[in-house]
Amino acid sequence: MSVGSVLGSVLSLVWRILEGIRKTLHLVLLLVIFGFLLAALHSSIPIVPASAALVIAPRGELVEQLSGDPLRRALGEATGGPARQTLLRDVVDSIEAAKKDPRIKLIVLKLDDLAPSGLSKLQEVGAAIRDFRASGKRVIATADSLDQTQYYVASQAGEVYLDPFGSVFIDGFSYYRMFFKDAIDKLGVDVNIFRAGTFKSYTDQYSRNDMSSSEREESSAWLDSLWNAYQRDVTSARSLPAGALQDFVEQGPAELAAVNGDAAKLALQHGLVTALKSRRQVDDELENLVGRDDDTHSYNAISMNSYLDAIRARHLFESKPASQVAIIVASGEIFDGRQPPGAIGGQSMVDLLRQAQFDPAVKAVVMRIDSPGGSLFASEQILRQVERLRGAGKPVVVSMSSYAASGGYYIATAANQIFANPTTLTGSIGVFAVVPTFQRTLAKLGVSVDGIGTTSLAGMMRSDRPITPAGKLMLQSSIDHAYSEFLRRVAVGRKKSVADVDKIAQGRVWSGADALRLGLVDHLGDLKDAVGAAAKIADLGANYGVDYIEPQLGFRDELLMQFRSDVLRLGTMAGLVPDAGPLGRMLSPLLEQARAIALFDDPREIYSYCWCVSPGG
To answer: Which residues carry out catalysis?
Structure first.
């Protein structure tokens, strides 16, 4: 054997040894990482005390789906203020689980950071609280002060304690919006409006300086419906006479002056609260009920998020039933293409519905809609996929949240059944297009436009030229056709004639209770009612599971989100992340409207949208 071959054999042996060591070290490293992940997972699962109060302290608006990408949500958390949003289902799930949990002796509601939210969502929380109390457990609400939204939830508790320096502020429901006609005229902008529907008032903001009589009529109807429901729920919960809340609002200014401005005393006199007590006084009493936590020097408690982590961790390794009812959330304005959570993308929603269609475990689907509409083209895409889902033998039931209007109602029309809350805002069956042109604005600056085209339509849609009569005819014809298709879709889904649908359409907004009377929805009920109906239509019996189908973050995205969140939190501590401040909050209605308009992206510029976002509590 030559020296070269011997050297080659030795080197080959060394290489194999080194490769073996590499693989072994790689395996050890993977095991270490896996061990760290298990340890992190184990340490992140909170322990529920043997005797505790569940503290529910929602922050921000109650929503069906958290809005925006993870970075935007991380920014909201990193600014140091209240988070912008809390999932409605998190609140309801925690209350329902606590009802059956012997470790949870009572619920404490802390509502200071709850922002105005849709009344239907507040009602679902209220129903869960009342069901919890029916088990014999106590619910205690404690607050420094309460606004209208916060007080609705607090009123459902058995005991409401207000700080002696606090207040309860209730002012009823309102619907105000901005009108821009004078500003548009001053700027020299021509806003060309095309619409179908007598009550389709969204475009009035460009052509009027005030609310039209038709909009005032329809808005009064649904506002009164919501206000009556709010009063009925609160007076019933607090055992107050009918009209007590209206009296509190109307007589409040004079009565407040009579008690020398003592708002807490006035709330107590009207029976809105149980007693006036500071948080410290309430906390001391809670120690006697659930025991003392020496680490926090307060009563034994677990937060809603920690409690959800604990109870959901138990189900991680449980086998799911073979049959599932899938819940798909459609929350926000409807746009074309793919959109982040909190907005409805035509393609995004189609992808989720297709996932349900081809998942053999999914036997039925519930679409939870919380939307004022938007792009008609995107709405049509979603509706067609609902039809395909039903064609595959999977029933679809719609559950309407605070609002499912215009395009939000359009995508519901192909469902087997539609459930609405009595205070859901729905209908608004109508379409419009808004095409601004700026030739007069440019003329004020000394700019003129001239040229030629090969046809009478060439350059018709330029924003620096007026729309020709032929162009206006084309646009209005397209709007009329879109409206007729909307009517046809509703007529087929609701088993009505087009003429009958037209009578209750015309862009008019209805409450859920009125929509039931008019046949626009099938039942009044919540998400659980819709899930039960879907299971019944699919003939699933009692043995089925319920799961959400929604876009999931990958492991890399989760890590990136956590990293960015930490960076943002450090930036906030260093004063690098500014707060919007009072000016930002004052301008938020205008900025929100501008945002929605800027994002409208229908390929034909035809929209079915309702400026009827629920006024909340």
So the answer is: 200, 406
